[in-house]
């Protein structure tokens, strides 16, 4: 690992901006959560691929916190950046903003963390470069990633236990 390639976090920054149209919304006129989650996963996967420069797959959606509604006519901006890397995995932070173009009012609508794994041409996990933070915000995300990684491992163990428990159960 001593001569592991390094890349700046900013090199993974990925931004997607879209209008919110009526077919994208629920009966309250706000963006469907599932639609937003698809935007989040798509944008995060591109950020992960920018770092790995190979096929990446979503290992987990660690959290999606919906903070404010995104309404019909708003513009939704999804920004993703790789915040931490393991040997073959990457944590990606995603910030979602909603903007009313008429009033210029902008708000953070959601925050999310996802984990991706890089795969080689045979579909096997492959090493990824280490990310290097530069700004205070990037350093904070990078330094707090270890805590989130520990929480992910605990959740994964709990999910595996539930899967064994419910493998033969009917709900």
From TrEMBL:
Domain of life: Bacteria
Database matches in PANTHER family: ACYL COENZYME A THIOESTER HYDROLASE (PTHR11049), CYTOSOLIC ACYL COENZYME A THIOESTER HYDROLASE (PTHR11049:SF24)
Annotated Gene Ontology cellular component terms: cytosol
Entry similarity comment: Belongs to the acyl coenzyme A hydrolase family.
Protein name: Acyl-CoA thioester hydrolase YkhA
One of the GO biological process terms: fatty acid catabolic process
InterPro entries listed in its UniProt record: Cytosol_ACT, HOTDOG_ACOT, HotDog_dom_sf, Thioestr_dom
Record's keyword terms, sorted: Hydrolase
UniProt organism field: Weizmannia acidilactici
Alphabetical list of CDD domains matching this protein: BFIT_BACH
Any GO molecular function: long-chain fatty acyl-CoA hydrolase activity
Gene3D superfamilies according to UniProt: Hotdog Thioesterase (3.10.129.10)
Domain HotDog ACOT-type stretches: 10-122
């Amino acid at each position: 690992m001593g001569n592991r390639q390094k890349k700046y976090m900013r090199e993974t920054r990925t931004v997607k901006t879209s209008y919110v149209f009526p077919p994208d919304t629920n009966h309250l006129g706000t963006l469907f959560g599932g639609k937003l989650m698809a935007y989040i996963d798509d944008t995060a996967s591109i950020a992960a691929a920018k770092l790995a420069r190979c096929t990446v797959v979503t290992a987990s959606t660690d959290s999606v916190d919906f903070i404010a509604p995104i309404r019909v006519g708003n513009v939704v901006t999804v920004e993703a950046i790789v915040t931490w890397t393991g040997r073959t995995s990457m944590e990606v932070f995603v910030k979602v903003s909603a903007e009313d173009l008429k009033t210029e009012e902008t708000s953070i609508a959601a925050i999310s963390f996802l984990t991706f794994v890089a795969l080689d041409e045979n579909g096997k996990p492959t090493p990824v470069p280490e990310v290097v933070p530069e700004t205070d915000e990037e350093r904070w995300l990078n330094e707090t990633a270890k805590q989130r990684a520990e929480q992910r491992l605990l959740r994964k163990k709990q999910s595996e236990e539930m899967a064994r428990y419910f493998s033969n159960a009917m709900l």
